[in-house]
Automatic annotation (TrEMBL):
Protein name according to UniProt: N-acetyltransferase
Chain ranges of the N-acetyltransferase domain: 35-179
SUPFAM superfamilies: Acyl-CoA N-acyltransferases (Nat)
GO MF term set: acyltransferase activity, transferring groups other than amino-acyl groups
Coiled coil: none
Organism in which the protein naturally occurs: Tianweitania populi
Top-level taxon of origin: Bacteria
InterPro entries: Acyl_CoA_acyltransferase, GNAT_dom
Gene3D superfamilies named among the record's database cross-references: 3.40.630.30
Length: 205
């Protein structure tokens, strides 16, 4: 091996070890559309949530604020793929903060596991925030990973004097003000304040 060849071989070896392997195949981004949840979506939405979040999902303290209630008007959103299959879901719920201030609680947010990192979660979050603002809501709260939700403007800065009605991790209790200052001085435990399922059924009957 001459000097040039030896240099090239050791250079190649160095590059192989210094650079992580990169897959240059085009990344398939799932095609999807966003829209309102339909009555017929309930079974697929529940199946998707079981798949994405596991069976323990109903033990969360957020569930106490959702049980027996309807989501806030116009704020049950889904993503569908090209075959019209449900691939993402997010819902928001009316809550009253301890001292009477009204807000929304967001969750659960989930996407079909095979579509993860395809942008569906972000699209649902942005649509939820836009719609909540358009409908005149003033703040959104949620319990979730700051590493994901901070990109949409959520933080724990305004939730220090608020509490969920059950166990939760304080650093994961986040809020986004849609109206600046809405959560200033807000304190107390969240309570469900949305339409009860029974009221909706009674009105429909
Ligand atoms: C969280 C979830 C909804 C995100 O949906 P998605 O369509 O995969 O999200 P997006 O494609 O918009 O964003 C993906 C990015 O978020 C990151 N991300 C996903 N979950 C995250 C988390 N918990 N913490 C920090 N970052 C996270 C991914 O690493 C990815 O980063 P990249 O863009 O740098 O590659 C989805 O992963 C999911 O359904 N998870 C299971 C259910 C769940 O945990 N729901 C949230 C409860 S807190």
């Amino acid at each position: 091996m001459n000097t040039n060849t030896a240099f090239q071989a050791s250079f190649d070896a160095l590059i192989q070890t210094a650079l992580p392997e990169v897959d240059h195949r085009p990344v398939a981004r799932p095609a999807f559309t966003l829209g309102a949840e339909r009555l017929g979506d309930v079974v697929s939405r529940e199946a998707l949530l079981d798949l994405a979040m596991g069976a323990n999902r109903k033990r969360k303290s957020s569930e106490k604020l959702r049980r027996g209630r309807k989501p806030a008007e116009g704020l049950a959103l889904v993503a569908r793929d090209e075959a019209d299959q449900l691939v993402g879901t997010v819902r928001l719920w009316n809550v009253r903060l301890g001292d009477g201030v009204q807000a929304l609680l967001l969750g659960p947010l989930a996407v079909e596991p095979s579509t993860k990192s395809g942008g569906i979660g972000s699209a649902l979050m942005r649509q939820a925030i836009t719609e909540a603002t358009r409908l005149g809501h003033c703040a959104i709260l949620l319990v979730g990973d700051p590493g994901y939700y901070e990109r949409f403007g959520f933080s724990a800065a305004k939730t220090g004097d608020l509490a969920m009605p059950g166990p939760y991790e304080r650093h994961r209790f986040l809020a986004l003000e849609l109206v600046e200052g809405w959560l200033d001085g807000a304190k107390g435990t969240l309570k469900a304040s949305g339409r009860k399922v029974s009221e909706v059924v009674a009105r429909a009957g």
